[in-house]
Every structure is written in structure tokens, then in C-alpha cells.
């Protein structure tokens, strides 16, 4: 928008997305010239151009169709009369913008440029040249003479570090030992995070990935294009050699100037401090079930263990009786039960009972409502629940979230139970143990009082009512908060947290 004097224009329309499992982030050009050269305030991208005349304030037909024109009509008039040259430049830029080919976008140009640069690097690497330009195994000893720092205080080292990097074309910082300890502990539970860097035409997303005490950044486009082979475009190095003795951790960075400026690198480093180094901000993702689901940080919220129940109060036991291929069961398990458990694990526990509808005899195969595939999946999940312990809930959710739960079993087991044995799971399913487990689940289901009449069937501390069932299916999170008899955790009460909203 224009300011009171009719000068600066600034506005943006930005669509931001969370990334955890391959979601695409979109950069949308701004609506105004200050952010996307050539577009008149209030004129959305793609609309036909407007030919302004210095002798007339008449609205052109195209502007009349724009719902935002009235908001900016007076400001456009002031700009045109007070700064005609600036207005003329904006109009020329807008006309030039319209001549761009259909489908043109800054994002597309960015991708094209990146692909060209990556191709050059590949050719350079193939010819024996250096492809990345980053220092290998960069150590603090390669920067400072550690022997000379032994008699220095933490303050002296901090001043020396700042002075040394004040003239360098990079960024640096001195972090207190306590802050880095908190920051690094957060990095262990949330090693991958999506950061946004503002540009005139929108936001560019960078994927940050911790590797030890180094934090590697690459653009989201780069990560989506090359996956695990995406090169780092910025690396933050954290040196802890003097953390214990001097109480400070020293940070510096290496960047690829082709893609990241010093200012952008500093912006990313500031966001790392904001999101990882502050307890209040880290808890923001867990402040509601909706945020945790949308940003796909249920597991991190569980590990944060921010709910704080009253000591000694027994957990609420939520038991789900279900069929593995029952559509309603799968929706409840993946969209209500698992997300709620990850946020409220300190006040609730869950029991999963995959149920086979009938047993023909003591020795013959059992039958299932959705066929043999469901029988096999029920037995697979029964064995996983029996063998995998605490990891079993994550594995079952992983399976039920996939298109084919049975085919997803092995990769889900390997992801969430890396120390486990897939051969042991197969042995349970193929041997007599799996059948015994399924029979036990069937007996437990048939002994329910009141008897179950449909699936999913949900009990709370062994009790079932249709009222609780209906509430659970619509909002299990709020129901668990209501039913828990201990002190309500902050995530249940919705206590407000004051946040530092500064980013860059």
C-alpha cells in the first residue's frame, strides 16, 4: 500500500505450507509494484493492463472489475500527480510484465537458474574440479589458536570472535552454553525444519537439516528436485570446544553466494535462534491439535512432553476395538486417536485391539468382514503390538495411514522400530503365535459389556456410551481433556503464551 505521502508501496499475497513429508511450498507474486514490478496496486496478476492517462482520472473498464480499485484510487492519483516519473516507471514495468510469456513466474526462473547452476557443478565435479566449495571437516582449530585461548575468559574469546568476523563476508555469533544446550536438545527431537526467507516477490523456503552440530540448509525446490543428493547452500557450524571451560559456543557459516546472500543467511540464523533456542516458541506447534496436525509435528510434540499432569494421577485409558481395513476405523485411528495421543501422552494411554469378526473353529483359519487381506493385516498388527512395545503405536499409525497397510508394514517397522527384527514379526505372523494373539483379541472383544454393535468401538477406562463415542469421533482431543480427572495441562486449557514475533 502507499504511505500517507503517496510514496512507498508494499503488500504481498503469500501462501505458506508446512513441510514434513513432501508438501510443496508455493511462492505467489505480490499484488503491488513494490513486491512484483509492473503490477498496479489492487490489480491481481494476469488481469489485462490499464492505460493510465495523465489528463484523466476516469476508471478504465478493467479496473472497474477489480474489487480492490476503490481502496487505492486516491493513492494512485496522489502518486501520479506528486511523483509522475516514479509512476511512469511503474507503468512501464507493468507493461513489460504483461509481455512475459504465459506461465512465466519468478519461481520458474529460480528453478531454471538453479538447474543451470547444478548442471555446471556436475560438469565441474566430473572434470575433477571442486563441486561445492565448502570446507571439509572445518574445525575450530583451523580458525583459532586454541593454545592461546586457554588463559582467556569467555568474554575475551567472544570479543575476539566478533572482531575477527566483523570484516568477513559471512555471519557469526557467540551463543551462551545454556542457550546452545537448549537449542541442541531441541534439534535432537526436531532435526528437520522449514524456514522462510522473505523476498520482494514472496517467500522462499529453505529446508534445514541438523547433522551433528552442523545445520545444513538447501532450498525447498532443491530438496524436492534432488532429494538426499541436494547440496548444502548454507552451513552453520557450532563449535563447542570451549563450551565447558569458557561457557560459550562459537558459530560461523559457509554459504553458496550463488543462492544465498549474507542478509538471507543472517535471517535463517535468526530463525534458528527463534524456533530452537526459545522454549515458548518451540511449544507453539503443540498449542493446539490442529496446528500439530497441519505442521505434522505430532511426534515432536509428544517428545516435548509439555503437558505436565498432576503427579500420581492415573492415566486415562482409551481402548480402540477395530478392523485394520475398516474405513471408519482407519480414519479415527489416524486423524483422531494418534494425533491426540501424541499431544496428550502424559494424561492418556491407548490400547489397540485389532479384531477378527469370527472364528470358524479352534484350528481353522478365521474370517474377516473385508476379506483375507484384512485377516492378514489384523494378524500383522497384533504381532507388532505384541513385539514392538512403545514403538508399536507409531508403526500401526504409519500402516493405517498408507494406501496398503499390509505392504507398508515392513517399511513402517524399519522406520519406527530400527532396533527390532522384521524376521521376528514374520515369524509371529507365520507361526502359531499370531493366531493365538488374534484369538485373544476376539475373546476380549466378545466379552465387552455392553456388547459392541459396530466398529470402531471406543472405551474410556473400560466404559462405553454412545455419547462418549460420538464425542470421540468428532473431537477426541477435547473429550480426553474433559475426562481426565487430574490437573488440566496447558494444551487442554488453551493458556496463552507470549511470543517474540521478530524473525529477521
TrEMBL record:
Subcellular location: Mitochondrion; Secreted; Lysosome
Entry-linked Pfam families: ATP11, GILT
InterPro entries associated with the record: ATP11, Interferon-induced_GILT
Keywords: Disulfide bond, Glycoprotein, Immunity, Lysosome, Mitochondrion, Oxidoreductase, Redox-active center, Secreted, Signal, Transit peptide
Principal localisation: mitochondrion
Cell membrane listed as a keyword: no
Class of this enzyme: oxidoreductase
Record's GO cellular component terms: extracellular region; lysosome; mitochondrion
Known EC number: 1.8.-.-
UniProt KW RNA-binding keyword: no
GO molecular function: oxidoreductase activity, acting on a sulfur group of donors, disulfide as acceptor
Single Gene Ontology BP annotation: mitochondrial proton-transporting ATP synthase complex assembly
Reported function: Lysosomal thiol reductase that can reduce protein disulfide bonds. Facilitates the complete unfolding of proteins destined for lysosomal degradation. Plays an important role in antigen processing.
Assembly information from the UniProt record: Dimer; disulfide-linked.
Similarity comment: Belongs to the ATP11 family. Belongs to the GILT family.
Protein name, UniProt field: Gamma-interferon-inducible lysosomal thiol reductase
Source species of the chain: Muraenolepis orangiensis (Patagonian moray cod)
Amino acid at each position: 500500500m502507499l504511505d500517507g505521502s503517496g510514496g512507498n508501496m508494499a503488500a504481498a499475497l503469500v501462501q505458506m505450507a508446512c513441510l514434513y513429508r513432501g508438501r510443496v511450498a508455493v511462492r505467489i507474486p505480490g499484488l503491488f509494484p513494490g513486491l512484483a514490478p509492473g503490477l498496479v496496486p489492487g490489480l491481481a496478476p494476469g488481469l489485462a493492463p490499464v492505460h493510465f492517462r495523465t489528463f484523466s482520472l476516469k476508471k478504465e473498464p478493467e479496473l472497474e472489475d477489480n474489487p480492490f480499485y476503490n481502496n487505492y484510487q486516491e493513492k494512485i492519483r496522489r502518486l501520479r500527480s506528486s511523483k509522475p516519473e516514479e509512476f511512469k516507471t511503474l507503468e512501464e514495468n507493468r507493461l513489460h510484465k504483461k509481455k512475459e510469456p504465459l506461465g512465466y513466474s519468478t519461481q520458474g526462473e529460480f528453478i531454471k537458474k538453479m538447474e543451470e547452476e547444478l548442471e555446471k557443478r556436475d560438469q565441474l565435479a566430473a572434470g575433477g574440479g571442486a563441486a561445492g566449495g565448502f570446507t571439509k571437516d572445518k574445525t575450530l582449530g583451523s580458525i583459532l589458536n586454541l593454545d592461546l585461548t586457554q588463559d582467556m575468559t569467555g568474554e575475551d574469546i567472544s570479543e575476539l570472535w566478533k572482531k575477527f568476523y566483523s570484516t568477513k563476508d559471512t555471519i557469526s555469533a557467540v551463543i551462551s552454553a545454556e542457550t546452545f544446550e537448549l537449542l541442541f536438545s531441541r534439534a535432537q527431537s526436531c532435526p528437520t525444519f522449514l524456514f522462510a526467507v522473505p523476498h520482494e516477490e514472496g517467500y522462499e523456503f529453505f529446508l534445514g537439516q541438523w547433522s551433528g552440530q552442523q545445520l545444513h540448509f538447501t532450498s525447498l525446490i532443491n530438496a524436492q528436485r534432488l532429494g538426499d543428493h541436494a547440496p548444502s547452500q548454507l552451513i552453520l557450524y557450532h563449535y563447542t570446544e570451549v563450551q565447558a571451560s569458557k561457557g560459550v559456543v562459537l558459530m560461523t557459516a559457509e554459504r553458496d553466494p550463488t543462492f544465498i546472500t549474507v542478509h538471507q543467511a543472517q535471517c535463517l540464523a535468526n530463525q534458528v535462534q527463534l524456533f530452537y533456542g526459545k522454549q515458548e516458541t518451540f511449544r507453539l506447534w503443540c498449542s493446539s491439535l490442529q496446528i500439530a496436525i497441519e505442521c505434522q509435528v505430532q511426534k515432536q510434540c509428544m517428545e516435548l512432553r509439555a503437558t505436565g499432569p498432576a503427579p500420581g494421577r492415573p492415566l486415562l485409558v482409551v481402548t480402540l476395538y477395530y478392523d485394520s481395513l475398516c474405513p471408519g476405523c482407519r480414519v479415527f485411528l489416524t486423524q483422531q486417536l494418534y494425533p491426540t495421543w501424541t499431544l496428550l501422552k502424559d494424561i492418556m494411554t491407548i490400547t489397540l485391539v485389532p479384531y477378527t469378526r469370527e472364528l470358524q473353529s479352534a484350528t481353522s483359519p478365521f474370517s474377516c468382514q473385508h476379506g483375507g487381506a484384512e485377516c492378514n493385516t489384523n494378524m500383522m498388527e497384533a504381532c507388532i503390538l505384541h513385539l514392538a512395545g512403545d514403538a508399536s503405536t507409531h508403526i500401526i499409525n504409519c500402516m493405517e495411514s498408507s494406501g496398503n497397510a499390509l505392504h507398508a508394514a515392513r517399511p513402517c517397522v524399519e522406520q519406527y522400530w530400527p532396533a527390532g527384527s522384521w524376521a521376528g514379526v514374520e515369524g509371529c505372523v507365520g507361526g502359531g503365535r499370531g493366531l493365538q494373539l488374534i484369538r485373544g483379541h476376539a475373546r476380549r472383544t466378545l466379552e465387552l459389556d455392553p456388547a459392541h454393535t459396530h466398529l470402531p468401538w471406543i472405551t474410556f477406562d473400560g466404559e462405553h456410551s454412545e455419547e462418549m463415542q460420538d464425542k470421540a469421533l468428532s473431537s477426541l482431543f477435547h473429550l480426553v481433556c474433559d475426562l481426565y480427572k487430574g490437573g488440566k495441562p496447558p494444551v487442554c486449557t488453551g493458556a496463552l503464551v507470549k511470543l517474540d514475533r521478530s524473525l529477521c
